[in-house]
Structure to design on (372 residues):
């Protein structure tokens, strides 16, 4: 199934700022709101998706995770909720439009949140051959767990204070004409609580870091930029919930082989006499030597394909090909004997050795008439 692109849902570019995101959401939410489309199931689903996209892209932390890991990275992070009823669906809508679209004002439930993301991410580098054939790697990394002194709150003695700006409700209300707008409190980010005095052990961060290591199996065929998800190896929340670890793979370049998807490319240098006369040579492959037959008159940059000699698909189906590209080499200097031999060879071909003369002869005659 193709993953939904939240930027496409809101019809915005990936570099859109918060104001543009809010404007796009406002426009689409008004267009597809159930009150304006009674009984229209398609509009209802569209409205749910629009809300889902806005929940993520309007939140800096969630947006950062989404940009880096996609929708899967938001799982276990409070992510988003499409909900079953429109009380849930309208929470963000009401935040922007107040009670203008049915139901009247209602108190917003505080979402469960932590002072840190429970998912974790690291980068590892593997050799070219390790990515092609798979390997085992020992991963050394650090994860976060709740500060033992403040129980993850970041506050001294674990005691949070009610936010004075919203009175602990998590929202502030503003009137504009006859409309009432409810917005997330910018001081407490909607939690309704603030840290009045920071924990001295974690300096208000709410967590401490722990070093750990484990062995991971790098699957055969993994590629540069691929990401592996290791369940239950992320950070640990104050309530014991543990996130996942995302391992970003970087593959070192090889001196001879170049990979594109599951195909492997290699450039083979040949002397001009080899392509003129034809030849049979041995070339390196991923799994051993391969025999390459060079037909006479092979062209520079011409390619030869070895089916199934590329990289095995990381999904487990089939293998790519090995593509050989010819690079014809010519002598940069000649001794007198070599020069004499080449002249004799040229003469032996007669007019064939000067193809430009037969091609341009008629053009020369035409040009003379232009100026006569």
């Amino acid at each position: 199934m193709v993953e939904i692109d939240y930027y496409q849902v809101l019809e915005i570019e990936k570099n859109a700022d918060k104001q543009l995101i809010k404007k796009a959401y406002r426009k689409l939410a008004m267009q597809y709101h159930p009150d304006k489309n009674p009984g229209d199931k398609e509009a209802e689903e569209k409205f749910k998706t629009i809300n889902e996209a806005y929940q993520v892209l309007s939140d800096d932390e969630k947006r950062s995770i989404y940009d880096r890991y996609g929708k899967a990275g938001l799982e276990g992070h409070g992510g988003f909720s499409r909900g079953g009823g429109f009380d849930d669906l309208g929470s963000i809508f009401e935040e922007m439009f107040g009670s203008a679209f049915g139901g009247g004002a209602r108190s917003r439930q505080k979402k469960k949140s932590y002072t840190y993301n429970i998912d974790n991410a690291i980068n590892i580098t593997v050799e070219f051959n390790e990515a092609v054939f798979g390997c085992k790697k020992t991963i050394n990394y650090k994860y976060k767990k709740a500060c033992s002194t403040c129980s993850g709150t970041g506050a001294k003695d674990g005691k949070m204070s009610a936010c004075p700006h919203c009175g602990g409700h998590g929202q502030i209300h503003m009137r504009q004409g006859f409309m009432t707008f409810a917005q997330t409190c910018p001081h407490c980010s909607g939690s309704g609580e603030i840290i009045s005095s920071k924990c001295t052990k974690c300096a208000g961060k709410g967590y401490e870091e722990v070093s750990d290591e484990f062995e991971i199996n790098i699957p055969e065929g993994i590629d540069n930029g691929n990401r592996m998800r290791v369940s239950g190896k992320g950070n640990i929340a104050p309530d014991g919930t543990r996130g996942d670890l995302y391992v970003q793979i970087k593959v070192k370049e090889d001196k001879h082989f170049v990979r594109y998807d599951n195909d492997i490319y290699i450039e083979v240098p040949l002397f001009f006499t080899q392509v003129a006369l034809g030849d049979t040579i041995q070339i390196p492959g991923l799994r051993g030597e391969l025999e390459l037959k060079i037909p006479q008159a092979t062209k520079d940059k011409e390619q030869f394909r070895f089916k199934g000699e590329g990289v095995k698909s990381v999904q487990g189906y089939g293998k790519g090909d090995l593509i050989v590209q010819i690079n014809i080499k010519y002598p940069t200097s000649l001794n007198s004997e070599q020069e004499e031999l080449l002249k004799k060879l040229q003469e032996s071909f007669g007019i064939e050795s000067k193809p430009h003369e037969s091609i341009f002869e008629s053009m020369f005659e035409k040009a003379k008439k232009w100026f006569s």
Summary: The chain has a mean pLDDT of 83. Residues 100 and 179 are 7 Å apart (CA to CA). The longest helix spans residues 41-57.
